[in-house]
Amino acid sequence: MSATIETPRAPQPVRRQRRFNFEKWGWIYMRASGVVLVVLIFGHLFVNLFAGEGVKAIDFAFVGGKLSQPFWQIWDTLLLWLALIHGANGMRTIVNDYASNRLLRVIFKGALIASAVVLLVLGTLVIYTFDPCPAGSPANLLPSFCPAG
C-alpha cells in the first residue's frame, strides 16, 4: 500500500471567498492596539508614579482631579477600551486554540463577549459620571478642591 502526496504547487480547489476575514483583522488589531497601549500605559504610569509627589500622592482627590478633566477622561477611556478589547481578543484566540468542542467554544466566546461588554459599559460610566464632589455630602468628607457647602 502506497500513499501519494500531492505536489505543493498543485492547484487547490476553489473555495468561496469570505467578505470579512475576522482572524486577519483580529491579528491586525492586536498589533495596532498593542503599540497604542504601550504609549497609553507608560503615560499613565509616568503621570501617576513619577510626576508630582509620586505614588504617595495617589488618593481619592488625585483620581477625582484627573477624572474631572476631559483630557484624562479621553485618555482613560482609550486605555480602558483598547486594553479590554485587546485582552478579550487574546482570550478568544486561546478559546479557539484549546476548546475543541464546538458547543463549549460558543459558550466560552459568548461569556467572553458578555463580560467584555459589561466591563466596557461599567468602566465608561465610571469615567464619565464620576463626581468627586457629590451634592449634599458633609464638608469634612469632601476633597479639598471641592467648593464648601
UniProtKB/TrEMBL annotation:
InterPro entries noted in UniProt: SQR/QFR_C/D (IPR034804), Succ_DH_anchor (IPR014312), SuccDH_FuR_B_TM-su (IPR000701)
Subcellular locations according to the entry: Cell inner membrane
Cofactor requirement: heme
Keywords assigned: Cell inner membrane, Cell membrane, Electron transport, Heme, Iron, Membrane, Metal-binding, Transmembrane, Transmembrane helix, Transport, Tricarboxylic acid cycle
Single annotated GO MF: metal ion binding
Membrane spanning stretches: 28-51, 71-89, 110-130
Annotated pathway: Carbohydrate metabolism; tricarboxylic acid cycle
Membrane topology: Multi-pass membrane protein
Main location: membrane
Gene Ontology BP term (one): tricarboxylic acid cycle
GO cellular component: plasma membrane
Record's function text: Membrane-anchoring subunit of succinate dehydrogenase (SDH).
Protein name: Succinate dehydrogenase hydrophobic membrane anchor subunit
Organism: Lacisediminihabitans profunda
Record gene name: sdhD
